[in-house]
Design goal:
Elements (H helix, E strand, L loop, with lengths): L11 H15 L5 E3 L6 H8 L4 E3 L2 H18 L8 H18 L14 H12 L1
Helix pairs in contact: 1-2, 4-5
């Protein structure tokens, strides 16, 4: 997961903001982007990343949707988000924790699995 973004609306402007923020924060420009088939993504990708390969196959997107299940499971006791800022904080923190646990973060490349969250806690605290 490169970035998590919460928006009140799912439109091309929100998608464009997500892609710009992901590029700014990582300093990387992707060659391929995987999304669902929402109509807001193609115009946003044409504006921000005109040469990127946009992949929308169900098989590639299943992993993303499966991860959303983990987030929804954590939100159930909270009865959803009350404010957009809370949603943004929770989704960004969730993305960081998932990347740490799955070994996709340079913060914990050589850290044993059981210590990854403890080592990266200062980074997680910055998102709050």
């Amino acid at each position: 997961m490169v970035d998590a973004y919460f928006s009140k609306r799912r439109n091309a402007d929100a998608a464009e903001g997500f892609f710009r923020r992901a590029i700014d924060e990582t300093g990387l420009t992707p060659e391929k982007v995987t999304t669902d088939k929402a109509k807001c993504y193609p115009p946003a990708l044409r504006a921000v990343l005109p040469d990127v390969e946009h992949r929308t196959s169900k098989e590639l997107n299943n992993g993303i949707e499966r991860d959303h299940g983990h987030l929804k499971q954590r939100l159930y006791p909270m009865r959803g988000f009350k404010q957009a800022t809370s949603a943004d904080i929770i989704t960004r923190g969730h993305g960081l924790v998932r990347n740490l646990r799955n070994g996709f973060s340079s913060l914990t490349l050589h850290v044993p699995l059981n210590l990854r969250l403890a080592v990266a806690w200062p980074q997680l605290a910055q998102t709050i």
